[in-house]
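ERR on first pass: missing label on line 2. Operator R.T. fixed the label and resubmitted. Corrected input:
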Amino acid sequence: MGVTDSLLADSLGRIAEEIDGAFDALLPVPGDARARLVEAMRYAAIGGGKRLRPLLLTAVADMYGVQREAAIRAAVAIEAIHVYSLIHDDLPCMDDDAMRHGKPTLHLAFDEATAVLAGDSLHAFAFEVLADTATSPDPFTQIELVRTLGHASGAQGMAGGQMMDLVAETSEFDLQTVTRLQQLKTGALLGAAVEMGAILGRVQPEGRGHLRGYARDIGLAFQIADDLIDHEGDAAVAGKAVGKDADAGKETFVSLLGPDRAREQARMLVEQAVGHLAQHGREADLLRAVARYIIERDH
Amino acid sequence: MGVTDSLLADSLGRIAEEIDGAFDALLPVPGDARARLVEAMRYAAIGGGKRLRPLLLTAVADMYGVQREAAIRAAVAIEAIHVYSLIHDDLPCMDDDAMRHGKPTLHLAFDEATAVLAGDSLHAFAFEVLADTATSPDPFTQIELVRTLGHASGAQGMAGGQMMDLVAETSEFDLQTVTRLQQLKTGALLGAAVEMGAILGRVQPEGRGHLRGYARDIGLAFQIADDLIDHEGDAAVAGKAVGKDADAGKETFVSLLGPDRAREQARMLVEQAVGHLAQHGREADLLRAVARYIIERDH
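pass 2 clean. output:
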């Protein structure tokens, strides 16, 4: 294993532990009828997922010397948004998925109503965590984090992309529209992770251009890789159902470009993403490793 | 009509217009596949409801000379949370309601998946609006508004109360537990409305005790009144189905106390709420009128 490989492996292990620990500490189970709700939130939030958004956020924050505790707080918030979106996306009326992170989806492990409420509660939890006074950056930074996460997750970001994804089942989307869809559905939150790390690092907006370029490129590469996993992957390895997009008649990067050109495109995007980091030295090695990991993963 | 009656009627009319206008301005329909999502958000958010939370928030803000525009912004945020909770609460897997504010519920007018996403989008929208730089109080005030709204709407507030409400269908709750349930499900957000008005007015936490007492009392009175409407009301006037709690076998204030004692209890709570305002003069007349309106309304 090369130096960057072990840097990546160590960082993935560390962030997984930190995020699990933070969710565990911040979501104590109450001793009344709400216990089931918090247990459902914990079921979905703890012990699953690659924690890619927290990894990106903390990697950028580390580059600018941000205190680890403040970065983890913000990372938990964005991961809570990601987890809530998966819960709602898995619902019978949405993607109707039975498996997530290798275990039954929340609405099967609990029930649909609890899944709706647990998603909503994790959504509110994200903003509550960002606004908490406990660890905290100054209010100027806090409110910029709230604004960034709110914008990236709502109708103009992630939720807007999910809506386009629903429409995609009954429409013929071209490459440009599929690109736009994915930039919103997955890219907006990945971009917010990078942006929030930069906000914590007090990088002024005009100094964030290269980081935004990096985030945009890895966001698209990530989605192409996801389409390839859906097209070719193994459900047991992926931890979720595969072959779904073709079954739903949805256009994807793979259906529009073919697997070979899609793979080539993802590789190009990753090189382009790394190119955006040229002004940085060794401190950006983790971001470079994350970019490469994004297209090499099998889940 | 007495002086306070016309004050109330004028204020209800004014806030309805302002909230509709703000939603209209803040939710422009985009020219792509997300149009359907924003149309769904607008369908649920514009032109319905009593706007009780915005009325409370602006009434308190007015007492402390808060600029109207800033108060309306915060009022739109809390109303967006209320509207999203109604959309999700009406879903087939939750209360399975067909009518809301006298028109078909969102999942019937559109579809279930769109209803889930429109609720989620209004949820994110609320925090985005609070964090906006356009109109704004200082970041200290903004972040306190975010913290208050996040806490009141999540697992420790409204969503927690909704979870208890689900459990209530299969459990025998006593008066104390029903009270706690309602304090969370409805009371938390009504309390947040009053609290947010006070935050905008820069009333320090130790100076908010009487306002919290007022909010707690009208919150319970509001729910008892709702139970009475559900017990005795007319669906056409209420704008939604009635008689549902009894059908679902849920204990309510009316089932536990009987209608006469429930009505008496609500009246007592309103007098107690008004009592909390004794230190205020005419500037609190609207809050007094709102307290009385809460048990006199028929929808």
